[in-house]
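Continuing the batch. This is chain 6 of the set; chains 1 through 5 are on the previous pages. Same settings as before, nothing changed between runs. Recording input and output for traceability.
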Amino acid sequence: MEPQILNFIQQVAKKLSNVAFVYSPPRVMKPYPQFDSDNIYVFNHSIYDLMKHCDVHASISSTTALESNFMGKYNIFINIDNNSIKYYGSILDESYGCYYANTPDEFIELFNKIDFTVKAKRNDNCFSSEGNTLVKKIH
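Output for chain 6:
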């Protein structure tokens, strides 16, 4: 699915040229992808360090969606083949600042409607306060 994600991001970045996109490739990906948009940056750093500085996290179904929600960040899921909704649709919805985009144009529309002066609401049903466990079993 990685080529589909890369193409999706490229299309969005071209239309949101005033927004910086940071792509954190999977550790196993070599060589790193090349983008032809000046506003996409590829960083092979800890996703958690990058997430602290972002306004929106985008993914298909990565568990970092839960962690970004825990940090009060918005999620826009790249809903390729409905995989995002299948995985997170029952627990992360608009009430928690989580949106599902089927197309690059939908992604842009969702991005533009976010009020960045307010943090996303955290879904505390996903998180545990017991011991060292942060994420509850959700399936």
